[in-house]
Design goal:
- By secondary structure, the chain is of the alpha/beta class.
- It has one domain: Glutaredoxin, CATH 3.40.30.
- It is 32% helix and 26% strand.
- The chain is built from six helices and eight strands; from the N terminus they run ααββββαβαβαββα.
- The strands form two sheets. It has a six-stranded mixed beta sheet, with helices on both faces.
- The longest helix has 16 residues.
- The radius of gyration is 15 Å and the shape is globular.
- The protein starts with a helix and ends with a helix.
- 34% of the residues are buried.
């Protein structure tokens, strides 16, 4: 196992998950290389995190059965619209569900950012996600800079400030 993955596995970001549920706070990470992420979207196209180097990436692990996940989706859509034309991309990793679950959800909640399928939760487990939603902000060099256990309003306040700072 390489050193950067060992550091990732030892990272105590979600050790305090129970505390973060009530008041989600961004945790600063010192540029750790994340585990690989290469998943298909609903049309079958594979999206690899490596392909987005040069852009700030929000990776959000979520599920349709998770009320806080559903509640933050509209703010994520607004963030995508707010960041249009800038070096930013959002990857919503749907954890542990089948494409039909996601399709039914999208009939009720309209979002058009990239949603990836992780039906067996293999990527979710590799990223050491123990509760949903869980989000990571990746810098332009492909390193994790911030993690968040729990929901937030993505299109305002601290979230926008951190993303804009990473784009500079």
């Amino acid at each position: 196992m390489t050193t950067h993955y060992l550091r990732w596995l030892l990272l105590p970001v979600f050790a305090l998950f129970a505390l973060a549920v009530e008041a989600a706070e961004f945790v600063k990470i010192n540029g750790v290389t994340p585990p690989p992420l290469a998943l298909k979207d609903r049309s079958g196209k594979v999206h690899s995190l490596d392909a987005y180097k040069g852009k700030v990436v929000l990776v959000n692990f979520w599920a349709t059965w998770c009320p806080p996940c559903r509640e933050e989706m509209p703010s994520m859509q607004r963030l995508k619209e707010k960041m249009a034309g800038r070096p930013f991309v959002m990857l919503g990793v749907n954890s542990g569900e089948q494409p039909a679950d996601l399709d039914a959800f999208l009939k009720r909640i309209k979002v058009d950012f990239t949603l990836l399928l992780d039906p067996d939760s293999a990527a979710t487990k590799r990223w050491k996600v123990y509760g949903l939603p869980a989000s990571f902000l990746i810098d332009k060099q492909g390193r994790v800079r911030y993690a968040l256990a729990g929901p937030t309003e993505w299109d305002e306040g601290k979230a926008v400030s951190l993303i804009e700072g990473l784009m500079r």
